[in-house]
Give the backbone structure.
Amino acid sequence: MRELGTVISFETGPSSQEFWFVVNNGGVKKGQFVQVETSDGLLVARVDEVFKTNRYYQRAESVSEFEKSGKSLTDQFPVGRWEYLVAQVYPVGLFSNGSQKRVTFPVSPGNKVYPVDENVLNDVLGLDVKKGVDIGKIEFHNVDAKLNVTRLFQKHLAILAMSGAGKSYLTSILIEELLNRDRNSRPSMILIDPHGEYGGFAKDPKYSNSTKVYDGYKISIAASSLTAYELSELMPKSSAVQRRELAPIIKELRKDKPTYTLDDLIDAVKNSGIKESKTKFALISWLHELNATGLFSNKDYPSIKDLAFQGNLSVVDLSDIVNLKKKQIIVSYFARKLFEFRRQKKISPFILFIEEAHQFAPEGEDYERSLSRGIIEQIAREGRKFNACLCLVTQRPVRLATTALSQCNTHIILRVTNPYDLDHIKQSSEGITMGVFNSIPGLKVGEAYIVGEAVNYPILINVRERKTDSLEKGMKLEDEISNFTNNKDLNDKDLETFM
Ligand SMILES: Nc1ncnc2c1ncn2[C@@H]1O[C@H](COP(=O)(O)OP(=O)(O)OP(=O)(O)O)[C@@H](O)[C@H]1O
Ligand SMILES: [Mg+2]
């Protein structure tokens, strides 16, 4: 194997936690994995930074004085020969006889450093070569980034990046990979799609049998399946007294009419014996307000069992709903029911993908503006025990509820430049090193760091290209303008004829 360099001695090392080597051969890149043979086994390490040094240029005053004289160091001295590339590396594990150990002893100065054996790398990183979801290639290595499904989705996942960095693209690859598995080994997948981007799955012949898109305007909620408590959560300004009065009315109504509508409930409140007329009118007014959303009827559409059909993808397309409160009510209701059904094992393990998660679980908003935050936080805290997994996708990590984000044990981070978001990621990503953190703003579209539970060490990957056209692309600005202009002419003609 081609030797890369030789371990050198610095004041502080080599130690069991870091060492340096001078590069003798070819380039070494930040983020690349290397290995050193030691008496304890094969030590695998990650290059965290690369430095150049040249003793001719170490003293500023000498360089300046010399160059002031009109001469150049390069003309007078063999400066090129004294330029060295030094790599700073962090050991990640020690391998001997197929098992992995923690590094507790330093390598020796003089040890030779080699490129990592790529078969070893799979074990080092904790990848699942046989059955993992293949989302791309490990940067600098010819190794597929195949993430173990259990490790990735046993707890929760967050996909964090600025707008346009490739979050939805990556999400669609994850879904593609899950849909490519044998149906019996797939969870059910429910995707909250505020921009209507994922409809392509239903049009793709390969996935159309396993995908169902539910349009926002058709969604309905069975009023009768909400308890008094759940209803009052959707009417955050209602008082404790009003809520208390509601419970017995619902109980009575349910006896007469098991699948009642909100209109029925409003009538029941009107005819009830609530003594305080203020309470009665307030309740009626809250219920009217809820009813005005047009979301409630006497049955659920989709039914929870259809929504979480094992092995299927259900896309909840909310693109035609403008009102945020209405979108939050939908997410709150269906997420709660999914979790409830899963707890009772009435539906299969599921992954709930939430695009624009900061809209549904916003940090710091009062309850009235964050109706779905409570249940998202609850699934984040308790879902793991029931295999109810969240995948939260957001371009504003800082605006996503900290409780939810901190329960996401794996973070996939693409390019982020906003300092507030970066700071938030640093606080909430377990195991993120400074080297990884500092390079997040410089990532290109399609480059991503995976940090946390799904991998043994943070890894940089190149997200693969999609195999199918499952994501509906945004149209290019210029195409959209010319499309609009052409249609506008037609529309104007129609209008003229009509006039
Ligand atoms: N791995 C990749 N390979 C090739 N193209 C990619 C890749 N990732 C993203 N792109 C392209 O970059 C563009 C933006 O990607 P995407 O829509 O996924 O961004 P986003 O992070 O979801 O943005 P937004 O926050 O606005 O929703 C798309 O045109 C997409 O096709
Ligand atoms: Mg997107």
